[in-house]
Amino acid sequence: MITCLDCRHTAPEGTLFCSECGAPLSEASLQWMESQHANFSKSLPPGLADAETAELSGPAPVVLLVLQGQELRLPDLAQCVLGRSGPHQALLPDVDLGPYQGFELGISRLHLILRRRDRNLFAADLSSANGSALNGKRLAPYQEHLIHDGDILTLGKLTLQVKFEAGS
What is the C-alpha separation between 118 and 14, in angstroms, rounded? Predict the structure, then answer.
C-alpha cells in the first residue's frame, strides 16, 4: 500500500493519484501532470482551444455568478474555467468552486469553460464527471451554448444564476 503524504489516505501499489485528495503518489504522476498542463489547450476541440486567456479590451459586460446567496464576479478573461482546485493540481480553474462545497456537490477539477466572443458568453462542459446543465437541459461535452442574462447553470449539483451588468 502507498500512503498519501498530503492526506494520509492509503492506496494500492501502482496508484498514480490519491482518490481522496487528488495528490500525485509517484514521480510518474508528477510528470504526467506536467505534460497535461503543457498540452491542455491543444487537447481541447477546435474552437475551444483558440481563445487566449487574455484580458478583453474595451468595456465588456461584467459577468456575475449568483450562487448560495452570493455574487461572484468572473475575471475579465476571454475564457474562464470553472472547477475546484486541489493540492498538487497542475491545471487550476480560473474560478475555484471548492469553497462553495464544490467537492460535495460533484464539481470536477476542470468542470466548465465560459468563453466571451463578440460580446456574447458561451458555456461548454469539459467532459465533467457529473455533467452540466443550462436551464435544466444537460450539456453535451465540448459543445458551446449561448448564455443569456438570468440563465441557470447547474454544475454537478451546484446551481448558479448568470447575471450581466454594464461594463465600466
Answer: 47
